[in-house]
Amino acid sequence: MAFKKSFNIPNIKMNPVQVLALGFALLILLGSLLLMLPIATLSGKTTPFIDALFISTSSVCVTGLVTVDTATHWNYFGKTVIMTLIQIGGLGFMSFATIAAVFMGKKLGLRDRLLMQEAYNAINLQGIIRMVRYVVAFTFGVEIIGAVILSSQFVPMYGWGKGLYYSIFHSISAFCNAGFDLMGNYTSLTSLSSNPVVLWTMILIIVASGLGFSVWMELWSFKSLNKLTLHSKLVLSTTLVLIFGGFILFFIFEFNNPLTFGGMNMFDKVTNAMFASVTPRTAGFNAVSVGDMSMTSRLLTIILMFIGGSPGSTAGGVKTTGISVLFLTVVCVIRGRNDPEAFGRRIDKKYVFKAFAIVALALALVLGVTMWLSYFESGQGRNMETLIFEATSAFATVGLSEGITPSIETGSKIGLIFGMYLGRVGPITVLLALSRRRPPTQISYPEAKILIG
Q1: Which domain holds residue 115?
Q2: Residue 444: inside a domain
Q3: Structurally, how many domains does the chain consist of?
Q4: Would residue 146 count as lying in a domain?
């Protein structure tokens, strides 16, 4: 039986984007059913469907927003279900299906390779299967190394069994940019704000996963900067600017804040400033209380969440390349050039159009979810900045919150579920999945002039 049959509903032909959108939805539903079971909770009681659906969506979409406390609500079965959903959601269910097919000796056809190309946002089909193998090996390799380092801290704290489990869980959650933690009482990593081993390990794991697998494949065979593609150069340069720019700003904004960095020594301030800069893109852990940060820092966090990581990674957001293309387009307009340029290369207008479309749809989604939340939370005394923060965190699959998620209304939970799903799958992917693409028209209309600005 051909491998491609497993991706088709009988008598219904689906294109790659439809398969991806439906696959994530089915995985979320399966996770919800498992988390509803009484055997998944410490209390032995059934979890309400809306909360199970919310946690399953947050896990598969590697977000980290939670309506029930992960540490105290779920038992080890429930936590393992969440960890498995995070791993599958981070890597993509297509990776697991492809690896299973390869191990079973199945031959992958063109359709299967197109699915993988769409799943990893790859530029071309050449070497796509080799890339999948690399992705799986790289993922598990980094997660194992991360778990080993974290175990040096968690095992002394919790003992061998619990310590190893916590190390594995947090390593997977960090690499997949999920933001789930097992510290309890919605505290994330605030109890470890003075533990540099844990924080710097998480920082390195998050940065490694946020660069994108195609970039790491190039770096693995690195010979010289001139050999790197424009994509990798944009990803690396933009990532460095965001990380160190965010670090400097957080360090300045929170330096004297008595509720965050004020009482720390200099090394801890540097560590926590770096952690605060890295985690919004888009891991979702926090080592200091987000609600206690200054308003300026919370605004900076929203900006970093919206940008997110890089294409082909486990991160969300509008991506580093999208923002860099928009910035280069602005520079192009100011300089009076016809096309944006970077590192001695011209960027095709189709990438400019796509970047503008993604950012415009992302803004529309964040504003739409914010409006939805404001309608249902109008009687709860929430301020608009808190709702925008929550909506951006959901879209960018970050998981940071100012503490309102557990107490929001059912309607708000539904809005955030759609925000997380659309943010993970991608607004353009969902629109393409729901629409029928027509071949490009050959008609060229007369040019007209309009006033801009």
Answers
A1: 7-432
A2: no
A3: 1
A4: yes
pLDDT tens digits along 359-396 = 999 999 999 999 999 999 988 888 999 999 999 999 99
SS (H, E, C) the chain: CCHHHHHCECCECCCHHHHHHHHHHHHHHHHHHHHHCHHHECCCCCCCHHHHHHHHHHHHCCCCCCCCCHHHHECHHHHHHHHHHHHHHHHCHHHHHHHHHHHCCCCCCHHHHHHHHHHCCCCCCCCHHHHHHHHHHHHHHHHHHHHHHHHHHHHHHHCHHHHHHHHHHHHHHHHCCCCCCCCCCCCCCHHHCCCHHHHHHHHHHHHHHHCCHHHHHHHHCCCCHHHCCHHHHHHHHHHHHHHHHHHHHHHHHHCCCCCCCCCCCHHHHHHHHHHHHHCCCCCCCCCCCHHHCCHHHHHHHHHHHHHCCCCCCCCCCCCHHHHHHHHHHHHHHHHCCCCCEECCEECCHHHHHHHHHHHHHHHHHHHHHHHHHHHHCHHHCCCHHHHHHHHHHHHCCCCCCCCCHHHCCHHHHHHHHHHHHHHHHCHHHHHHHHCCCCCCCCCCCCCCCCCCC
Q: 208-257: per-residue pLDDT in tens?
A: 999 988 888 888 877 777 788 999 999 999 999 999 999 999 999 999 99
